[in-house]
Amino acid sequence: MRIRSILAIATLLASVAPAGAGTIRGRLHLGSGSKPVTIGASSMEVMGLEQAVVWVDSLPPKFARRHRGKPRPARIVQIDRQFAPRVTTVIAGTTIRFVNRDKVFHNVFSISPARRFDIGRYSPSAIRDVTFDHPGVVNLFCEIHPWMSAYVIVLPNRFYARPDRAGVFQLPKLPPGRYRLHFWHPTHGEQRREVEVPSRGDGVVAVSL
């Protein structure tokens, strides 16, 4: 029985981290010109490094099939006449539940190519579900309150990371090879960079937006 348990654990570990797997780690920097963004009638917020997203554009086919991420339900709340969170990351196929926790009517709509929709006006405490099937950046707005905005980053796979406040990030384990990373930030745009994961060790990258 004990031998079977050990073999089962070994098999699980092998499926999570393939032989010769390494990772991509690095640091993201924001250039000058980080300006506060209006998010409410009387509130301001600076979109810091933790609002950025880093992801792998594509994976080797066999590896992608073995490590296909399953969409998990997500939630975006409208409260104090703003979206929370401001940036949401999901895998393609995820259904996001929008919840109105204010005492006023709200709306959510997007005209982004990755997902065009309009849920109409909905009352306090009401909910609406929207599924995001295609990778891309989706800008969210409220038709009633024009200062409200948020972002849904719909990803092609589960190999992504959110940097910390210092801009440091690390992706999940990847097999050796060359990968194209996508870096995105709400106010500093996006950039792509080729990174090599060696047969031993990690790929390291530093990017400024």
From TrEMBL:
Signal peptide extent: 1-21
Species whose genome carries this gene: Eiseniibacteriota bacterium
The keyword Transmembrane belongs to this UniProt entry's keyword annotation: no
Highest taxon, organism lineage: Bacteria
Key words, A-Z: Signal
Statement: the UniProt record of this protein carries the keyword Signal: yes
InterPro entries recorded: CarboxyPept-like_regulatory, Cupredoxin, ET_Amicyanin
Protein name in UniProt: Methylamine utilization protein
